[in-house]
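Q: Focus on the chain.
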Amino acid sequence: MLAFRMALRELRSGLQGFRIFLACLTLGVAAIAAVQSVSSGILTGLQEDGRAILGGDVSVRQIYTPPADDALAFLKRSGRISESAEMRGMARSLDEQRSTLVELKAVDGAYPLFGAVELRDGGDLQALLAKRNGAWGAVAEDTLLDRLELKPGDRLRLGDAEIEVRAVLAREPDKASSGAFALGPRLMVSTAALPDTALLQPGSIVYWTEKIALSPGTDAKAWQAELGRRFPDAGWRVRDTTNASPQIEQFIERMTLFLTLVGLTALLVGGVGVSNAVHAHLDARAGTIATLKCVGAPGALVFRTYLIQVMLLAALGIAFGLVIGGTAPLLLGRLLEGVLPINAHFGIYPGALAVAALFGLLTALTFSLWPLGRAREVPAGALFRDVIAPSGGRPRWVYVAALAASATALAALAIVTAADKRFAWWFVGGAIATLLAFRGAAWLVTRGAARAGRPKRPGLRLALANLHRPGNPTASVVLSLGLGLTVLVAIALVEGNFARRINDVIPKDAPSFFFVDVQPDQFDAFRQTVLSVPGTHGFEAVPSLRGRLATVNGEEAEKALKNPEKAWIIRNERGITYSAAPPRNGEIVAGSWWPEDYRGPPLLSIHKDVAEAFGIGVGDRLGLSILGRVIEAKVANVRAADFSTMAINFALVLSPGVLESAPQTWIATVRAPVDVEPAVQRAVLKRFPNITSVRIKDALETVSGMLGNIGLAVRLTAAITLIAGTLVLAGAVAAGHRRRVYDSVVLKVLGATRKDVLGAFLMEYGLLGLVTALISGIIGTITAWAILTRLMRWDWTFLPSAVLWTAALCTAITLLFGFLGTWRALGQPAAPLLRNE
């Protein structure tokens, strides 16, 4: 109680010296609380609106054809049912001058079972989709109308049919269940209109989905088990409301993890500010602590007094952060409504706020224990001399052990709360390594300045001396600003490599078009049509089917998966082809290719990602479910291939003699000059309206736009780290203010002009800024290289501009705060300080 009363009495003097402390904690806690709250709102929306997002209690999806009659009868007996079909197609204007790729969805009269379709100007969906005046109706997203220069009431061509667009689609309740990635705008028609379009050709990639509202009292899991027993070889995908949109859920969880860790980085940077603030506060209270010790106060009382004071202030900073972080999602909710394909349930989530508060508390405790423990051990005499000869020393082992326990708890919290534990482990290890690296770099700078000798120029000599003298700010400046800048360098290099890959490298090597759903009887005429357009070249084509990995060495693929990071291989149907010759776009890394005249048992060539996913290789057996039939094949070889080049490539290639008689289509690519591309697209659509053409440039723009949005979110979050670093730098300058005043007075008394003193101090901070920028550039570059080459398996290119911009920013920030701090010190009169001393 005595320590508590003393702590409260000291706090009566105000928060001077703790403003940076409060700002750092508030910023870090607010960032984590906001990210966790937004994530909780989105995931809660996925869970609570699962029926509307999925479109039913259960969804049964099958490629190529709808379920067989007996299976469909069973589904209908289970409750209310709605059938839909999804595929990609080409919509074009009536004059054939404009066309665009669309995500086509055909729905029946029962759609939607749950939720509601929102139309911009209102109206009844089924009435709008009905056939009137010889044309089927449709609703479409406004992007489609913009691309084809249409308005509601105008008509377009879809395959062989004329479709009248009667309303603008504002929101589709179950869009998220189709996946988060779309190459084109949505066009919704009636299932009764599909035959008139002639898009349903043998082998065309169509996903048929049955949404079922189960009869009251039916247990969804038990029903799925019964469905599996009745139709074990159906080859469909079954989902219920617990995983209504797994792709979006996984994306949100990964973005939450990444942004939370960036927020934690900001909090760790702020932790340096906490340490600096506590150290500066104890320096300012040197006389008080010395007096207490001289009158008999034990060191434990001093420690408890200031620990209570720090924790009370930490609680205040955490409270501010929770208020900001908890309310920010409520204010930003409307901005996110049009971005998210679901309705997020933004609100106050106690669990999210508790996690953020615990992060803040452990950070404050971890970074304040060392200076508090040091103050407890320093003798009173040393404290009286601390202004001109700062004492060193380490806390006793009990405080070091407490610090280690607190740091361990902080790391454990980061790992336990992360969706991807492996990534969190890497982050914790990287954070520790980075902190040690910057601490070591600061030590090297200090030692280097001490060994640099005595330059003839007085200002430079003074600047170097300030870098290594007792109580120098080198370590705090390098560590605080360096962490924030390292994050920015890493993000700038990763994002720059992404942009370069998409905008520079891929377009040079990529084909101009992908053509999908080319029927076998159309192939020769299609090839001739494409190559008849002047300027086209590089035509390539392969047969294509869709199927999924069913078994691995006789075990279900889901159970055989060894590497969760490769789960995309079993998540959806994969493209499958067959070939007598090895693909040109790949390299065999294990095994060998079969002879061109091979006609034996099925053999399989797999991409190395498939091998890594299941820990398999040459000689293992995979079962492929294609058109409801499982084909088991032995792995003959493993290939390496770069899918990002946009060339035709398949993860699964079968030997000849297996799939030739199955319903199939061809996919083809062609290269053409940019000015010829519209002519190619018009020629193909005019003669083959069922063939879907994907313009690579449009696809790249879509991907680039998505990466741009993600990059903006990441940059904004990373900016928080830089702000925290800047705050800590300001705190470091403020912490050294007393010493700056003392130095300035002494130098002015000895005859130095204001210009001389200012130049020496600015030279000191300029050197610190350049050194910090160099260290940040090196560590940030290594981090970006590891992320791209080890985690993402991408090619790496060093982009010096990102590092140079960071160096300039770092030096400018350091000089600015150094100038402000020095200018304040120079303005202090000498007489009061000299009389006091």
Observations:
- Residues 56-243 form one domain.
